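Weekly modeling sync, notes
Attendees: S.R. (lead), two postdocs, one rotation student

Agenda item 3: backlog of single-chain predictions. S.R. asked that every request posted to the team notebook include the full sequence so nobody has to chase files. The rotation student volunteered to paste the first one in as an example of the format we agreed on. Action items at the bottom.

Example entry:
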Amino acid sequence: MLKHQLIHPQINAILGQAGHHGAILIADGNYPASSKKGPNAQVVSLNLMPGVVTCDQVLKAILSAIPIERAMTMMYETEGPYALTEDPPVWAEYRRTLQEAGSRLELEPIEKWAFYDAVATPDHILTVQTADQQRYANVLLHIGVRMDD
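Predicted structure, as returned to the notebook:
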């Protein structure tokens, strides 16, 4: 019986085969998951209906199961019609979730095209496609080294 919160069998199987530096993308409902992925990545769709399941819910489940050493978010636009003047609200959720999981990680915002490049590596093993409707909710996690308690 599993002791952590993540019970999805396919996601558990992929994570069980992963190693240090493996990358996991938690993608919002607008992310082009079929075309913006690494050559070794599997896509698991959890997009039941708009808003169900959210990226933060997936983040909580994954943090309960594996160690994470890096968390990158897609940078928002600072100019033009979609420009934001402050961090998207979802980032506050992520920061709270990381803290509640006992992590000291800081979110690392990176520019949109650099984010796509970071996803398109051989280390990208999993995309969890959510139905999260929040903008800039994509988060790329890198698996860390397990430290025995």
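Discussion: group reviewed the output briefly. The chain has one domain: 20-143.
Action items: rotation student to repeat for the remaining queue; S.R. to check formatting next week.
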